[in-house]
Amino acid sequence: MIRKTTYGYTVEKKDLYLDIAFYADNIVRFAYSTEEKLPDSTLAVIAKPQKTEVELEANVIKTNQLKIVIDEDTLKVSIYDLEGNLLSRDKAISTDKPKVEKQLIWENGFYGVGEKYAWLNKKGTETANWNTDVLGVAPLHNPRLKEYHTSIPFYIGLDNEKAYGIYFDNSHRTYFDFGKTKDDVVSFSAEGGNLDYYFIYDKKVSEVVKGYSLLTGTMPLPRKDFLGYQQCRWSYENREQLMEVATRMRKEGIPCDVLYLDIDYMVDYKVFTVDSEKFNEFREMLKRLKGMGYKVVVIIDPGVKVEEGYSVYEDGKARDYYVKDAEGKDYVGEVWPGDAVFPDFLRKEVREWWAELHKDLLEDGVEGIWNDMNEPSDFSTETKTIPEDCVHKTDDGEEKLHSEIHNMYGTLEAIGTYEGLRKLQPNKRPFLLTRAAFAGCQRYAALWTGDNSSIWEHLESSMPMFMNLGLSGYTFIGADVGGFDGDSNGELLARWTQLGAFTPLFRNHSAQGTINQEPWCFGEETLEITKKYIKLRYEFITYLYNLMRHSSLTGEPVMRPLFYHYQNDEKTHNINDQFLYGENIMVCPIVRPGADRRMIYIPEGEWYDYWTGEKIEGGQYIIKEAPIDILPIYVKAGAILPKDEVVEFVGQEEKTLHIHFYAGANGEYDLYLDDGMSFEYEDGVYSLVKFTMEDNKEKLVIKSEVNKDNYKIPALKLHIHGVDNKANVTLNGENLEVNEDFTVDVDKAEFELVVER
Ligand code: GLC
To answer: I want to staple 128 with a disulfide (CB 3.0 to 4.6 A). Which of 146, 368, 626, 714 is the partner?
Structure first.
């Protein structure tokens, strides 16, 4: 029996109900349950169902985009587009142990599933989600490991002409099989919980990504200075070491915004303590660093040292805030401080208590928080996490097993910390970095991909990992540049810094006991190359900031696989080592030792070699020479790119903003400007300048329009690429003489420049 509900339909069969709810014409939730009550959603989903135009005829539901056919005997569904193409068909479903098997019909590739090793396209592979301290269970990140620090039970199936996404809203351990066990079956299942998933359809994969972001939210607009270069090490062990790094950066002329303190700043690894012997005059030190343009981030792990007299431990114990073991006692595991207990972040009051503990650090001048070991990691068990039968409590006092909460533990900690930072510093955008995450965690924290190694394979594999994270809603991401575990070397650091300069989080980090890998550690050549690319990062920082803003509004990632914009070109479906940085820049890192050239696929259209200005026709493979100081970068005709003059740190001084126009196609660009720091933009304190470029056989017309003017617009200088004729140029109707490299100063943000072809 199919019944209408407020947002869709319920189908009932004996003791089983299927609730079909619409979030848009192309976004449908399928929730199965044994009671006539919708299963609870996890913390990932923030969207609400919408009243949608739907009609039911017999067992067929039609929206403006989809036709859903329900088998009333089995509750299996088949989904078609309006032209009658089969998009998805259930082969088998089970609700005891939640599982769906779908027919693998037309999908050319499968993507998403967040932070996973191996190639971009997951077709023919299987994976699982259980947040894991990877180095705890394996010597190295490698493609045979399925479980990483992060769990995002979302995947995308696509071919040239269409795409869909399935978000399986289940926080238990989940499994995905993309045609591995049987080549015509794709399946997902979980150890517990409900069969509750969302189907998102569109012709374009980009719309599927936006649909997923609608369900699970987007990253908040980050601080601009945290997009600068970040330097870390486990550990800068005392004040002298940290200050030396800070001073050396400036002396070498390496731009740098953020420095980190890893676990050794604490007393015996007790969270919310500072070792004042190693870091004497902590507050004064932070003040000095601030004066030099640095922001300092400190690590906070969830494990609280069990120690009588340690106020955080005792306070949490007195309030009964720790996760319990199966017998109802505080569960004691082992992390850096030895015996440790774990706050039960499932409860709001625990999160609020935890948040409040950050107060002193912030007052001292700490500007960001780094949440590590939050899978949570536990050295005392074989699985390297706390036992699945540990017990959490909800706000209503209901008990939940850790097996259900585990994958969300890091995100729950992030929620507490993010909200706490907002409360403690209401007009400063929080910076929070996390290792463990669940779907939706992008709303609270940036993410780094954990303990990689200083090996070329990890440089290479980071790219598909980033692209799949981007497709899974995570934009603010990065890996430890230079590699964390093991010794790095000059060539590897140089190549890794080239890629790092184009990842939203750009942090060099290395492990205790390994060789130091700050930019100056491997000789003059490496220093010059890393410096060149860190500077390039700062040249593109306004461009990146604008991409981040766009992502905060839409969920579109900064780092995109080529098929994101060239889906109809099948050659792009398996490109692992090139990515788009926004729509118009393509980055092609070198990921092999000794390589001084590589093959590059140039997608359709006309492109410019960023370094030489040479024009290249798309739709072909080329070999690009790339000696150690060259990272191949391409810019698409029609691109309009803002570029900054390099500073030592973001906001150091006001400089001219250069706007680069790449002729050869029409283009437009919205430049967004604000203070990069506060929430005043929410009240309209920002500026928006729209640039357009129209290029046809007779003339090139470049115009700008100030659409909002509530934040200072800097001086602008224009650079036009790809135009030979420098005669017959007018600026605002006046004849203009242009120089060799076609740069033009404008004294007003609004202008019109015409070049006769
Ligand atoms: C974990 C982190 C690493 C950190 C180390 C010490 O291994 O992933 O980044 O440096 O712990 O805190």
So the answer is: 146
Residue 312: closest CA among 344, 273, 283: 273
Give Cβ neighbours of residue 728 (< 8 Å, ≥ 6 apart).
Answer: 755, 756
Atom of ligand 1 at shortest range from CA of 301: 12
Asked whether the beta carbons of 114 and 474 are under 8 A apart, the reply is yes
- Distance from C-alpha of 271 to C-alpha of 313, rounded to nearest angstrom: 9
Specify the residue with its C-alpha closest to ligand 1, atom 3: 451
In the numeric block, which tokens belong to residue 646?
């390099």
Enumerate the H helices of 217-310 as residue ranges: 239-252, 282-291
Distance 288 CA to ligand 1 centre (A): 26
Which of 299, 433, 508 for mutating ligand 1's site (highest number of atoms within 8 Å of CB)?
299
- Tokens 């731009």 locate to 255
How much distance in Å is there from the Cα of 303 to the middle of ligand 1? 13
- Pocket-testing residue among 270, 447, 484, 507, ligand 1, by greatest number of atoms within 8 A of Cβ: 484
> Structure tokens of 369?
């928080």
Interval 573-613: pLDDT, tens: 999 999 999 999 999 999 999 999 999 999 999 999 999 99
Q: Binning pLDDT at 50, 70 and 90, where does residue 318 land?
A: very high
Q: What ligand 1 atom has the least distance to the C-alpha of 235?
A: 10
Which residues does 359 contact at the CB level (< 8 Å), separation at least 6? Answer: 424
- Sole residue written with tokens 């590739």: 109
Q: Which atom of ligand 1 is nearest to the CA of 435?
A: 8
Q: Would residue 42 be called left, alpha or beta, if left means φ above 0 and alpha means ψ between -120 and 50 degrees?
A: beta
User: What strands, in cross-sheet order, belong to the sheet with 196-202?
Assistant: 2-4, 8-13, 16-24, 27-33, 196-202, 163-168, 154-158, 109-112
Q: Which of 247, 246, 234, 239 has its CA nearest to residue 280?
A: 239
CA distances from 280 to 237, 238, 242, 286 (A): 12, 9, 12, 11
CA 451 to centroid of ligand 1, rounded, Å: 7
Tell which one of 149, 234, 269 to mutate to probe ligand 1, the residue whose CB is within 8 A of the most ligand atoms: 234
pTM: 0.98
Residue 451 CA, closest ligand 1 atom number: 8
Domains of the chain (ranges, CATH numbers): 2-216 (2.60.40.1760), 559-636 (2.60.40.1180), 656-756 (2.60.40.1180)
* Residue range 335-361, pLDDT digits in tens: 999 999 999 999 999 999 999 999 999
Active site amino acids: 372, 375, 451
**Peptide bond before residue 255 is cis, with ω within 30 degrees of 0:** no
Q: How far is the CA of 331 from the centre of ligand 1 (A)?
A: 23
